[in-house]
Write a structure and sequence with these properties.
- The protein is about 25% helix and about 40% strand.
- About 15% of the residues are buried.
- The protein has three helices and eleven strands.
- The chain is α+β, with helices and mostly antiparallel strands.
């Protein structure tokens, strides 16, 4: 048993809210106030004359996660933190999402959109508050899953 791995996990659990790829959501970077996860399953129907429609389960849809919050740049992260997320979105890559409370991988997600609203401005036009919404979509690329499994097997 390698204690250094356990110490690293303990530090992440007490420090991070979540991690998306190499970006770690903390109180100092992008602390979020809401984390909404939506999962849907497909059940198309076929009409039958004189009877109730029949449904058929054909699988799970891509999960979506919406992360929202308010940044106060004097206290938390600000524009630079959101710019890092913009760069990740620009890459088009799928990133692993890890829950900070449980240290469990949630899957691989792409950044679909980032919305921000600046308000309560200083005299120079810099925002005192930045409200943001980050929309993620689960992709779980099979090659990425295989790579993650191999990496996790190394521990």
């Amino acid at each position: 048993f390698d204690r250094s791995v356990s110490i690293g996990a303990d530090m992440l659990q007490s420090f991070a809210m979540a991690a998306l790829g190499l970006f770690v959501f903390t109180r100092q970077t992008v602390p979020y106030q809401t984390y909404d996860r939506t999962a849907n399953w497909r059940h198309p129907t076929n009409a039958i004359i004189g009877k109730m429609p029949k449904t058929q389960f054909i699988g799970k849809e891509s999960e979506t996660i919406t992360i929202s919050g308010r940044l106060i740049p004097e206290i938390t992260g600000g524009r630079l933190s959101l710019e890092l997320l913009d760069l990740m979105a620009d890459s088009g890559a799928a990133w692993p999402l890890i829950d900070g409370a449980t240290f469990m991988p949630q899957g691989f997600f792409v950044i679909e959109s980032i919305q921000r609203t600046n308000s309560e401005f200083f005299a120079d036009g810099a925002p005192r508050a930045i409200d943001f919404t980050l929309n993620l979509k689960r992709t779980d690329d099979p090659l990425l899953i295989e790579l993650a499994d191999q990496l996790m097997g190394a521990f």
